[in-house]
Amino acid sequence: MRITRTGGGRGRRAAALTTTVLTASALLLTGCSSDDGDSDASDSNGNITLKLADFGQFGYKEAGLFEQYHKLHPNITVKEETTAEEQQYYPKFLQQLNSNSGLGDVTGIEVGRIKEIVDTQAGKFADLSKTINVSDWVSWKEKQATAKDGTVIGAGTDIGPMSLCYRKDLFQKAGLPTDREAVAKAISGGWEDYLKLGEQYKAKAPSGTYFMDSASAMYNAVVSSSAQQYYDADGKPVYKDSQAVKQGWDLAAETASKKLSAGLPQFGVPWQTALRKGQIASMVCPAWMAAQISTYSGDAYKGKWDISRAPGTTAANWGGSFLAVPKGGKHVKEATELVKWLTAPEQQAAVFKAVGVFPSNKGAYELASVKSAKLPYFSDAPIGEIYADEAKSIPEAVLGAKDGVIKDTISNQINNMETRGTSPDKAWKAATESVDKALG
Question: What span, in angstroms and rounded, lies between the C-alpha atoms of 348 and 345?
Fold first, then answer.
């Protein structure tokens, strides 16, 4: 992920940059679980098996990187153990950390969880700054994984610069612009303009279609464009007073009241079905989202989707993960070298080419394969250009220990506004009560 989720924000990883559409089984692959014993293995001949535990679709298998690494290091075999949903992955990961049993030699950590791990579990991970040039990443990525003592416990894999994915054919039938530059101009004033476009769509919408998939997805995109989201710089929860949260919530409430969305929480079976039936006209689209759309929409809608720049002029980042190396592993040195290699520019560029996950390593942005990247499924949208431009101006977000919990809880209540008709006041009261209880 980011198929991964916290609060609608963890269903991740993007579409292949080839004419072949990734199958749903590839995206949703859940690796066979190993036992709860040691996470790594070696034999008398010095051959080592490293387990990489992750969630969703990090893209390494699709890019052929494990096979390539084995050729470079014949004595090392990498076994990937993937959990489809990050919400299932993370609790098990915490249990394994606390018991020091069953952990991967390399473990994935989602951006919504990294602050909690940095603050409470940093001592259990190798300091990657000793072997990796962490300044190669976008600056805020390094800071997200840096503990108070200066150790860096996670290597940045990807980031989630924002765009808008939309169906050209449905926009045309509803009398809306279809050219990606014209769409970008129509929503250049911000998310309010996006909702105005939604009202225009609804007035002439083809039967059985909806302007967007869910108000909660839009909410997460809105919040992602702000530096201050759920916490302040001192680590204090400020979500009740956050301007980004207020704006996102109000826009989500307006979306629900005007019935501009299908009211489908992202990544669930109904959401997948709506994409397969061609019922969704637009969707907020961090880089990793394209894979979800192309997989579930299928061949029938190839070339009918396109990608425009996101609403407004403020860049946004939604999603992104890290690779960490637990100190308790038997092959920490080898695992660290694997992480260093996987997050180098050339390998991040290979993953971008394979599945569209946008690199966090700045060196990858200068590679021709990234600069010129296009998505055939999305009408050859120039995603290398779109995402690179977006990445340059993404604000440095303040992360908090319970970002994921807060995001999940608010998103669930937005879903209730859409599906149950819960009033905004009652939904907000329920959200804040649940969050406050979780925060203690």
Answer: 5
